[in-house]
Input
Amino acid sequence: MWFMRQAGRSLPEYHRARGDTALLEAVARPDLVTELTLQPVRRYGVDAAVLFSDIVVPLAAIDFGVDIVAGTGPVIERPFAGRADLDRLRPPDAEELAHVSAAVRLLVAELDVPLIGFAGAPFTLASYAVEGGPSRHHSRTKAMMLGEPGLWLDLTERLADVAIASLRAQVAAGAGAVQLFDSWAGCLSPDHYRRFAAPASRRVLAAVAELGVPAIHFGVGAGELLEDMAVGADVVGIDWRVPLDAARSRLGPDVAVQGNLDPAACLAPWEKVAAEARSVLAANAGRPGHIFNLGHGVLPETDPAILQRLVDLVHRDGHAVEP
Ligand code: CP3
Output
């Protein structure tokens, strides 16, 4: 078990260590990234570390013009608007990713659990590139996708190359697994997902398979897309909207699952959290290939003491649940 966003906002030691260092500055400092990544592993005894970084870091590395604005998220100075902008997108080289590789090397030397590396999937990165920032309806993105499908597919293929370069660097430096975050894919219909997002994501997953490390493929609100997201992935991340038993019967025994406690449930009193966690374990019913996690990232207001009790509960009861 591990938690998406286990490092960061919910931990007091994170705020002490990061202070007011801007996020992109923080991720450029391997010593700080190492400390922030290790904090939750030390505190909770989770079974994996996840690199402290962001999905837009490789875009920042190639000077695409990304800033991370506190309280907003990633903001792109000159959004992707047409064919001429394809020239601004290329895979980052080893030197541009040197800070990431250095942090991964420091971490694997320290850790005795695996380090999970990650990248943003082409669709989710394209949404930021086209919208210029976070978006509720992804309307410009979809307008480009449907209106200029050739340009759109070229954009997603460029972003696949960006993700592949970033994941290769992380695995070469010692990451033992990777997660491909397609956080916003859930805004697509299955038909649109298959036509406009899956081809580039599948190329990323195929490149990871060649590296010989397992790939977790995760989306939010992507319940209708699970079978498509499973193609080429070893593990599918399930959010809390899909019961885990339903996900398992849809995906079959050859695909592992990760999830899927509602992050907001962790804000309830402990007895309720425990009941919710037990029901996730019961839905998996002792089947092999379940990574316990939340259905999305830890919310900033989460009490770390609750997550500690959750780790202890899953470690104690996780193998003991009968169908
Ligand atoms: O812990 C923190 O949230 C503080 C540091 C921070 C991160 N990203 C780390 C991160 C900050 C301020 C950001 C900016 C950012 N980037 C936001 C706003 C964050 C917020 O909630 O205020 C967003 C939405 C992004 C874009 C982004 N980054 C997405 C869509 C994802 C994929 C995961 C998801 O939440 O759907 C990321 C990955 C990310 N950013 C991680 C971390 C530590 C992922 C690794 C992990 O799970 O720990």
Remarks:
- The first strand starts at residue 49 and ends at 50.
